[in-house]
Amino acid sequence: MAWLVLVFSGVLETVWAAALGAAKGFSKLWPSVLFGAALLLSMSGLAYSLREIPIGTGYAVWVGIGAVGTALYGILALNDPMTFGRIACLLLIVAGVVGLKLLH
Question: Where exactly are the structural domains of the chain?
């Protein structure tokens, strides 16, 4: 259960990061509200997961999921450049996250 909560919390990290960008310095109400809610749920899920998963592994997996998710959101929704180098680096992060899970 802790791993499922951790993955969901990592996805919520992508949500709050995207909402933070859309909030434009907290000048837009609903993206700011979404940011706060997603941040609270994401951190709560991370905290719950760390009761069973070592902090180094849990935090790295959480950040990796959030980083990859946010980068993919930027590429797919915000027209950030999609280059071979960027995709290769994202795949390296995914490989690291999977490796941490398998070696846990």
Answer: 2-103
